[in-house]
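Quiz preparation item.
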């Protein structure tokens, strides 16, 4: 019985030796000298520095009005194309309860 235990330990020892120690690939700069930010102080600084409300963003007028939508190249899906799909790629049919749920916008 002692032979079995020692052979298992030898195998475990070989496995442990095969694992290399972790070498980090990313090195971050030392932050020891950088003071940690204080949330309360930051909020006070923001409140003092900007007493007026922020300016509203006004959208720029477009140089030309948007044109009609164009279809992407390719063949549109047809009933024949959908029927040729294997069953596992076809969309599952919705039940009446599911359609009602979607039309309601969620639970009642």
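Solution:
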């Amino acid at each position: 019985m002692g032979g079995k235990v020692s052979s298992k330990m030898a195998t475990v020892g070989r496995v442990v030796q095969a694992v290399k120690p972790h070498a980090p690939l990313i090195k971050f700069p030392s932050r020891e000298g950088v003071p940690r930010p204080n949330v309360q102080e930051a909020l006070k600084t923001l409140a003092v520095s900007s007493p007026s409300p922020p300016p509203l963003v006004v959208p720029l007028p477009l140089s030309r009005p948007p044109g009609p939508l164009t279809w992407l190249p390719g063949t549109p899906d047809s009933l024949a194309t959908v029927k040729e799909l294997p069953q596992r790629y076809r969309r599952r049919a919705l039940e009446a309860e599911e359609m009602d749920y979607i039309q309601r916008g969620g639970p009642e």
